[in-house]
Structure formats: C-alpha cells, structure tokens
Design a protein that fits this description.
The chain has 337 residues and is an alpha/beta fold. Helix content is 32%, strand content 20%. A ten-stranded mixed β-sheet has the order 3-4-5-6-9-10-11-12-13-14, covered by helices on one side. The chain has a two-stranded parallel sheet with strand order 1-2. Helix 5 packs across helix 6. It is elongated.
C-alpha cells in the first residue's frame, strides 16, 4: 500500500489522521507546525512527537515534498522551476524578484481546460488537477522561500476549475496553524468561473485578478471560450457585490494585441465596463507563441491606453515583462521538460 502525503492537509484533516492512529489530538497542531512553519521533509524530523507516534505516522504517511527536476534562470533574475507531478506530467512555477518584493507564481493544474487562443498553457490541453499538497510544494520547494513577499495563483491552469484544492491550499497558506501569511499577500487569477469565484470571494480574503483581456463579450468569446459559459457582464456583476475599498484588492488583467483590443474605443469601453469598481488595470505586453498570428501592441499604443483609463480615474500600469528569455512570462508556461 502506497503512503499518503501529509502535505496539503488542513488542521481538521490532520486531527482526523491522529485520531485514527490513536495519537493525542494536539499532535495534529504539532504536525502542522512541522509541515508549514518549520518546513520539514521527513516525519523523523518531527522531534516533539513521541518515537511511537512518529513510527505510527510513518507506517501510513510521508511528508510528500518533491524537489523541482529542473531550474531555468533568466538574465533578469527570474527563476522558473519545473516539477514532475507524475510520470510525464509536469507543471512550472516562477520566482520573480524585484527591488522591494519577491513574487512566486504557482500553478494549480497540469495544463488548462480554458483553451485561450493566446496562451501556451491552454494550447497543451488539460492533464489533471493538482492536489493542495502539490500546489503548496511549489511554494515550500522554492530555494528563496525566505525572501518571498507575494504568492500569485497565476501559473498553469484555471484555479477555479480546481476550487476545492485551491481553497484548501489558501486556507493553509493564510491560516494561523499553517504558513500564517496575510491574505493581502496572496492573489488568485481567474477568467471568471462564476461558481468558484463566488466561493473564493466568500471563503477567503485574498486578492483577486480577473483575466479580462477584451472589453466586449463577442470579442472575448472569439479568443476565450470560457466567455460563452461565464459571460463578462455576469462576472462584473458578481464582483460589484463585494467591497473593494478595504485591504482586499481587485485587478483586471488586460493583454494587449495589435489592432485587436488596443484602440481608443476599446479603452473607453473598458473604462465604462469597470466603472465604479475600486481597482487597478494591469496592461500586459503580449508574448508571441508558436502558431498564433496575434502580435503585441506598440508601446505608444499602450501608453495612450493608460492615459485614457487614467482620464476616467482608473489606475492603470503596464506590466514589465519578466523571464521572457526562459519562457516564464505571462502566457508562456508550457512545462516543456
């Protein structure tokens, strides 16, 4: 019988484990501390648990950590990690250092079901969901863990197509028994899967990034198949029901394509669409991928887009491209092993 992983279990699940093994209930909190705060890689390292208790745990469980099988380093300091989830199934995470912060972009699925025309991950198809433990492993196995200031669920996959495991991992990242991170330091990015989005907004206090990319429903549907099931207007209607004036933030991701979604009229339409939401718009330079004819917008076009949004009192920034030389930039993750 193969051993089960402790990594990715919530405190409630760990309490069930120790109860079933006949160990004291407080052992669950001890295990959580070893897993998520001391970041041990073996049960033997859990030295405040009795030898008998560790032996009982080891018969059925392992910690469940696994190191990346490859690292790629960009000239700009970005590091991309490749993890093997199971035989011939891989995901990537990306470490992005900046002057005053360090962000880790993590994956939630092997591939993606969304099939967005402009995304390399979507082009490779869908091969499975990650467990909470496999999501957290990407964080814990970052060699620069101690420098991290932010975690973003913006890697491979649509997080809200894997809502249960993603929310479980968020509980552990932000819970006092887990990594005890402030929710302000965690952001989830989604195309707007409505049932999962409502759960995320109700069950967590983390930041939200909506992958918008197009200001018109018809245009969005042509490049993002999810629009047909979860229309833009319904996504906007839902997020308007929540308070964004406090510590929780919302941003809209908008990748700009030359001659497609970068006109003055597009900027005006976007401003009208998100009017009344206290938000930020992140304009993203498109990174070309094979077999896709889309081209990136010109720098002056992007600057004009910013000017129009700011005229409507909307904060807008152009995201600086990072890790493009190692295929680690937005929309380029494809887990080529």
């Amino acid at each position: 019988m193969s051993s089960k992983a402790l990594l990715g279990m919530t405190l409630a699940e760990l309490q069930e484990v120790v109860t079933n093994l006949g160990l004291p209930k407080f052992t669950a909190s001890q295990i959580a501390g070893w897993l998520y705060q001391k970041r041990v890689t073996s049960i033997d390292e859990m030295t405040n648990i009795s030898l008998k208790g560790r032996e009982a745990l080891s018969k059925e469980y392992v910690v469940g950590r696994s190191k990346p099988v490859k690292e790629s380093r960009s000239k700009d300091g970005t590091v991309k990690y490749l993890f093997e989830i199971e035989e011939n199934k891989f995901v990537e995470s990306v470490y992005i250092p900046e002057e005053d912060r360090a962000t880790l972009c993590i994956s939630s699925q092997i591939g993606c079901q969304m099939g967005c025309e402009f995304c390399a991950t979507g082009k490779q198809g869908f091969k499975g969901n990650l467990t909470s433990g496999q999501i957290l492993n990407q964080i814990l196995e970052t060699e620069r863990f101690d420098t991290l200031t932010n975690i973003v669920y913006m890697g491979m996959g649509e997080p809200l197509n894997n809502t249960d495991e993603v929310l479980k991992s968020i509980e552990i990242v932000t819970g006092n028994y887990g990594m005890a991170w402030s929710p302000k330091r965690v952001t989830l990015s989604t195309v707007g899967i409505l049932p999962g989005l409502k759960r995320f907004l109700d069950e967590s206090k983390c930041n939200l990034a909506i992958s918008l990319h197009f200001p018109y429903s018809e245009m969005r549907a042509a490049y993002m198949p999810a629009e047909k099931a979860y229309p833009l207007n319904e996504v906007i209607t839902l997020v308007k029901q929540y308070d964004w004036s406090g510590q929780r933030r919302i941003s809209f991701e908008y990748t700009m394509f030359n001659g497609v979604n970068d006109s003055v009229a597009d900027a005006e339409r976007l401003a009208k669409l998100i009017k009344g939401i206290m938000c930020r718009v992140n304009l993203i330079p498109y990174h070309t991928i094979p077999d896709v004819k889309l081209l990136p917008s010109k720098a002056e076009t992007m600057n004009e887009f910013v000017r129009i949004l700011e005229k409507h009192n909307i904060t807008a920034t152009i995201r600086r491209s990072r890790g493009q030389d190692i295929e680690a930039a937005c929309g380029m993750l494809n887990a080529k092993a």
